[in-house]
TrEMBL record:
Residue numbers of 4-aspartylphosphate PTMs: 51
Keyword set, alphabetical order: DNA-binding, Phosphoprotein, Transcription, Transcription regulation
Positions of the Response regulatory domain: 3-115
Keyword DNA-binding: yes
Main function: May play the central regulatory role in sporulation. It may be an element of the effector pathway responsible for the activation of sporulation genes in response to nutritional stress. Spo0A may act in concert with spo0H (a sigma factor) to control the expression of some genes that are critical to the sporulation process.
DNA-binding residue intervals: 128-226
Domain OmpR/PhoB-type: 128-226
UniProt-recorded name of the protein: Stage 0 sporulation protein A homolog
Organism: Acidaminobacter hydrogenoformans DSM 2784
Single GO molecular function: phosphorelay response regulator activity
GO biological process: regulation of DNA-templated transcription
């Protein structure tokens, strides 16, 4: 039974969402602000439905905290979503937006779609198994990246950066977030990320397209997009 964390300072919305999700066989954990969401978040949560505008700790801040620690899908709820807010939310790690007022059936459909993709991803990505995307085969446990029969030489930092991106497909990360996750140090600036992304792109380019897998999101950062699968035995 999927476990959904529903976070909104409007208790009526939380109750309404709980009723619909319960009818769909989902277990709902309720929170009414960002602080409660952080306190209730754990490994049992499968998806987070998060209001953007809340007092104390807002949705953006709660999203950032959750994304730094968990890979579960995060869907924002908001009555007023500007393009700038959408870009900011994606930068913090949100997976989707739904505008209030919303059709409950559309909400359920989106939740199911994200749960399905998240489940499929977890079944695919196992550290001791090879992962293929395009002509490339990635083996985390062996610290290897192959292009066909050729083994590509990656520095330890390049490999760590690629590993992080592959483990979070379809999520936009700012340069600042990548610095925190990959370099884990304040002694580097964002230009370091730019340089390493460029080097990595050159090694996993598709023909002349060096952004085939690591794409730029204007004004935000980078996103890894590829169809991941296990190579046939």
């Amino acid at each position: 039974m999927p476990r959904i964390l529903v976070v909104d300072d409007d208790k009526r919305i939380v109750k309404m969402v709980e009723q619909f999700l319960t009818l769909e066989g989902m277990n709902v954990v309720k929170a009414y602000d960002g602080r409660d969401a952080i306190a209730l978040m754990d490994e049992r949560i499968d998806l987070v439905l998060l209001d953007v505008n809340m007092e104390d700790i807002g949705g953006m801040e709660a999203c950032k905290w959750i994304r730094e620690r968990y890979k579960v899908p995060i869907i924002f709820l908001s009555a007023n979503i500007s393009s700038a807010d959408k870009i900011l939310g994606l930068g913090y790690g949100a997976d989707d937006y739904i505008t209030k007022p919303f059709d409950p059936m559309e909400l359920i459909a989106r939740i199911k779609a994200h749960l399905r993709r998240y489940t499929e991803y977890n079944e695919i990505f196992k550290p001791d198994q090879a992962i293929r995307f395009g002509d490339f085969t990635f083996i985390k446990s062996a610290h290897r990246l192959m292009k066909g029969e050729e083994e590509l030489v990656l520095s330890s930092t390049e490999f760590k950066l690629l590993t992080f991106l592959i483990e979070h497909p379809g999520v936009v990360f700012s340069r600042k977030m990548l610095l925190a996750e990959v370099w884990e140090s304040e002694h580097y600036d964002e230009n370091t990320v730019t340089a390493y992304i460029k080097r990595l792109r050159q090694k996993i380019r598709l023909g002349e397209d060096d952004q085939a897998y690591i794409k730029s999101v204007r004004g935000v950062g980078y996103i890894f997009e590829a169809e991941l699968c296990h190579p046939e035995n």
